[in-house]
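Bench notes, afternoon.
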Amino acid sequence: MKDFDVKIQFCLAHLIRDVKYLVDFPDNSVKRYGNKVLQALRELFHIIHLRENMTQGKFLKKLEEKKRAVLHAATSYVPERSEARNMAKRFIDHGDAYFTFIISPIHPTNNCAEQAIRFVVIYRKISQGTRSINGRIGCERFFTVVATCAMQSRSAFDFIKDAFHSYFHGLAAPSLLPIPDST
């Protein structure tokens, strides 16, 4: 990621879940640490929810302030327990990746991506997955077709039917690229 200047956004919903695990941890020092990080995250989201009531400049300034507060809470006075150390290391190594949405129009969670692949995860649990490389490749391609067609409001059945027809009649394969709007 760093070698190619790729910007990523780690899911804040997953981060909050992991911080809440620390809040409920039996060790009091870890519990205090988790509460400190969780409170800083709550303050960050409070600013995000107040966005409509601020100028863009004031919003960005407050957001940057709360980002620094979260990073400080997560990386200072860290208990010696591995659970807390691991959380601090995540922020040290990838802290900015939790805040990409501050300067980019990216949603702070990856819920859309998770919902897009949910049916694949359910299928894999029910079917026990595949047992070969060819099976895995076939499933990957099939599910790519299904997900892409769903995103484009196209019929996956019709696309697959057209792909088989093209194959057996020596025609060019249909494309998954979006169909341009003819208006």
